[in-house]
Every structure is written in structure tokens, then in C-alpha cells.
Design goal:
- By secondary structure, the protein is of the alpha+beta class.
- It has one domain: Anthranilate synthase (4-Layer Sandwich), CATH 3.60.120.10.
- It is 29% helix and 31% strand.
- The protein is built from 11 helices and 21 strands.
- α5 packs across α11.
- The two termini are 28 Å apart.
């Protein structure tokens, strides 16, 4: 399917990589070509109410400026994704494999499914050269990063906020890479349950996200924020010790529970009163490089509420902002040195029934074929108990998981 999609100027491929996700519906899901577009939440709701068809697309972190009057973004657009802060498309073709991994379904607005199936099977395999060795330049150097962490801790001490997500950008200019080869390499070394490969014109995203932002299944709205990261051990004994250390970490629990409370508040704005609950608190989940602390919050969507309100009142996701949300978004724009654009935003789908599933765009590479610019952003949650050096090391651990494919 990926080889076949390369002919399209827009496509989105979502891959769960075989993870046993009790909530998801698909092993993988692909959309290609565009018959119609929507560029705002109201437009999405109106279009879907009228057409009852698939929509795929993205919401950039900076769409916050459309949702909150106090928010703005002072840094220039660099990756190109910020030119379209929200963009959804009705695909010409949708292909998906269900969780049982036994059936491929093809839906099309143009050719017959049989024709497309034959074309997919006969698509020429993209012959990719070995990935080049590349070096990334950190936009914020180590000393500035450490100084900024201390400044953010002072904001917390002064009562401006409780927790803030702070990130740094890595850039490689004049990079000549094949996006599909980059995605395949990233997906092979860091398979994740919310992986994505996305193209829109000359802009590509290669994503290895472990985090679900928000999903709807019938009347249920569900979010699974991640807060808490621990490097995996080199053997079974040290790996179990790392898991236990993460589970018992008072700092990581404090980070996690603050975001759980924020998400509960966000979901309550679109769900029936009294239905929002925490289904799992401090769950420990393992991925190739790290263990993560994940909590699950759900609620029942108010029947009189447009389904897009669940997104409107929870975006950007709390795990990538902090609390209180509006204040920390102002501080993020003040202290970070790059515009986030697609980073800390989301990609996903809305089904013909109005169900949806969206990831959190982290652990991702962004490539602009016109500018030859390859970049990523990584960071972490800062609380008063944070240690500047440890926060730098956590940020670099997450960056290493992306940089290592170019070693």
C-alpha cells in the first residue's frame, strides 16, 4: 500500500504495529487522494453531517490560536506545516486491515476495489538507498536549556503554573532523504501503536508516536495521556527494575496525575455531567526504547453536543501543554525557540459513523522536499521537582531515538 500511495500528493497511513490496543479498530489504515477538504472544526462538523463519509487529516499545535483568544505564536513557520493549521480531506481511496489481521477492505470513489487491489499488488517497490549519515543541530544549546528549566521552575514556585511542557528542536539543513525510506527505518527501529506516514504536497511527516490523544467510539470519548518516561534496561532484571522505578516515581506520578486532572476537566466540557472517569491510573506500558506511564480517561458524549466539541475543548492535548493550559501555552511560546507547527498536534481519521481516533504527534520527523529541511522536536514535562540536567537527558533520549536511524 505504501509503495502504491507514492503517486498521490496527499496521503495518510496509520499503523498500530500489532500492539494489543483494547480500544482501537484497525491494524493499519490508509487514505489517499483528495475529493474535498475542510479547514476548520465547524466546517468538519457541517461537512460530515451532510456527507457521512471518511475524513483524514491533521491539526497543528498552533491551531490553539484559533481556539483561545489569548494565544499566539511569535516564531516563524519553518517546516511548511504551519501554513495549514487544520486540514482534513475526503480521500479518493481508503484501505484498512482490521484488528483480526485477516481482511483487507478497500473503499473507493473512483476505480473499483478490485482494480485498486490489483494495482496495489503490482506496485513497484520503492528501491531506497541507505539512509545518509546526518547531524542535527540543537536550536537551544545545553546551557540555555538548563537555564530555561530553572526559569520555568521559578514560574511554578511563583504560582504561575503547576506543570509545563518544554521542548527543543533539532534541525538538519540540506538533507537529501527519501521520506518512505525514513519512515520504514523509523517504524522498524521504533514500532509504535500510533505510527503515521503523512504527505501533503512537499511536506512529509514520519511519526512513531506511542500516544493516543482522543478517540470516539459511539457515545464514548476516551483520552490516554502519557507522562513519565524511563529508559529500558539491558536485560530482563534491569528492565523490570526500570518499570518498577517508573511506577513508584513520585515525580512521574505527580506529572501524570496533574495531566489526568486537566484531561478530566477538558472532557467534562463536552460529556454528560458525572460520566467522566479515570479508567486506569499510572499504567506502565513498554516500547522498544522506553517504558511510559499512561493513564486512561473516558466520558459519555452529550447527545446534543457536536462531536467536534470533544476536540475543540481538549486541544491542544494536556500532555503537550501543562496546567493551567492557557497560561502554560503563553509560557511555551515565550521560552521555546521554534514554532511547534505539526509537532504536539495530531493526525487521525473520522469515520462515516462519526467515530474518530487521533494520536499525539511526538517522536516524529518532518521533511520539506523543497527546502531540504529535516527536523524534529523533543522535550518533557517540567514540575517544581524537576532537575535541569535530568530534563536535558530525557529530551536527548527522545531525540536519540530519532537521530539513531541516521548514524
Amino acid at each position: 500500500m505504501l509503495n502504491w500511495t507514492q503517486q498521490f500528493s496527499i496521503f495518510l497511513f496509520l499503523d498500530s504495529n500489532g500492539y494489543d490496543d483494547r480500544y482501537g479498530h484497525y491494524e493499519c489504515l490508509m487514505a489517499a487522494g483528495s475529493h474535498a477538504t475542510c479547514t476548520g472544526l465547524d466546517a468538519i462538523q457541517h461537512w460530515h453531517d451532510t456527507n457521512k463519509d471518511w475524513l483524514f487529516g491533521h491539526i497543528c499545535y498552533d491551531y490553539k490560536n484559533e481556539l483561545e483568544a489569548k494565544c499566539s505564536s511569535r516564531h516563524p513557520i519553518a517546516t511548511g506545516w504551519g501554513d495549514d493549521p487544520l486540514h482534513f480531506f475526503q480521500p479518493s481511496v481508503v484501505c484498512y486491515i482490521g484488528k483480526d489481521k485477516t481482511t483487507l477492505t478497500i473503499e473507493s470513489l473512483s476505480d473499483t476495489p478490485e482494480t485498486i487491489y490489483t494495482a496495489i499488488l503490482s506496485a513497484n517497490e520503492t528501491v531506497a538507498a541507505a539512509l545518509p549519515k546526518l547531524q542535527f543541530q540543537q536550536v537551544i544549546d545545553k546551557q540555555t536549556y538548563l537555564t530555561t528549566i530553572d526559569a520555568l521552575r521559578r514560574h511554578i514556585a511563583d504560582g504561575d503554573c503547576y506543570e509545563i511542557n518544554f521542548c527543543n528542536e533539532g534541525i538538519c539543513n540540506d538533507a537529501d532523504v527519501q521520506p518512505l525510506a525514513v519512515f520504514n527505518a523509523l517504524n522498524a527501529i521504533s514500532p509504535a501503536p500510533f505510527a503515521a506516514f503523512y504527505r501533503s504536497g512537499n511536506r512529509y511527516m514520519m511519526c512513531a508516536s506511542p500516544e493516543r490523544y482522543i478517540m470516539r467510539n459511539g457515545s464514548t470519548i476516551l483520552s490516554q495521556p502519557i507522562k513519565g518516561t524511563m529508559r529500558r534496561g539491558e536485560d530482563a532484571i534491569s528492565d523490570d527494575a526500570a518499570k518498577n522505578s517508573l511506577y513508584n516515581s513520585s515525580k512521574d506520578r505527580a506529572e501524570n496525575v496533574m495531566i489526568v486532572d486537566l484531561v478530566r476537566n477538558d472532557l467534562a466540557r463536552s460529556c454528560k455531567v458525572g460520566t467522566v472517569s479515570v479508567d486506569e491510573l499510572f499504567g506502565i506500558y513498554s516500547f522498544p526504547q522506553v517504558h511510559q506511564m499512561i493513564s486512561t480517561i473516558s466520558g459519555t458524549l452529550d447527545a446534543a453536543t457536536p462531536f467536534t466539541n470533544a476536540i475543540r475543548y481538549s486541544f491542544p492535548m494536556g500532555s503537550m501543554t501543562g496546567a493551567p493550559k492557557i497560561k502554560v501555552m503563553e509560557l511555551i511560546d515565550r521560552y521555546e525557540h521554534s514554532r511547534r507547527e505539526l509537532f504536539a498536534g495530531t493526525v487521525g481519521y473520522i469515520s462515516p459513523l462519526g467515530d474518530f481516533d487521533f494520536n499525539v504527534i511526538i517522536r516524529s520527523l518532518y521533511y520539506n522536499t523543497k527546502l531540504k529541511r529535516l527536523s524534529y522536536q523533543t522535550g518533557g514535562a517540567i514540575t517544581y521537582d524537576s532537575t535541569a540536567v535530568q530534563e536535558w537527558e530525557e529530551m536527548r533520549l527522545k531525540a536519540w531515538a530519532l537521530e539513531r536511524i541516521f548514524d
